[in-house]
């Protein structure tokens, strides 16, 4: 099964800056990341895995939808974007087998090329490309910190409207100074501690390994 070390090695090979954070307590699902990291849900991303049935041929396949922690993508939005007739949450054993991640802790990275991946447009549009977001790693004790721009480039996720239109006042845009580039990092998770250096690092300079 894929875990933090699998992701760390892949990012290291691609010279992608990232951070593996050790959580203060184990989590069962990615929806617990905000509590574990002490961060707003808007900075913690969850990959929902959905079982789909092709609208024309009836073939079955899995699709991923990246949304903020605690949120669920609109089934109709996913169905429309991937060309499916039916969309429903995938069974845990299917998620484990196809993604090679523990169900509930699926990272948006290193997913099968045959699995369409969507990302809610507001995750990208509401923040700077250099802002840092956190995702699960496939294991209960760690999280991955990565820049929005790097996440989008590495996953090739399709931006689309996965959530219902917001009502009322629009939440202020979050700007998180890229850790490690301008002195002390801003917005450090208050409860977690990094498993390596205390800032996002350039992968080739990394000497510590993820747990």
From TrEMBL:
Q: Which domain of life is it from?
A: Bacteria
Tell me where in this chain the YbaK/aminoacyl-tRNA synthetase-associated domain is found.
27-151
Named from the GO MF annotations, one term is: aminoacyl-tRNA deacylase activity
Pfam families for the chain: tRNA_edit
Q: Where is the composition biased (Low complexity)?
A: 192-204
- Report residue spans for region: Disordered: 159-211
The protein's name in its UniProt record: YbaK/aminoacyl-tRNA synthetase-associated domain-containing protein
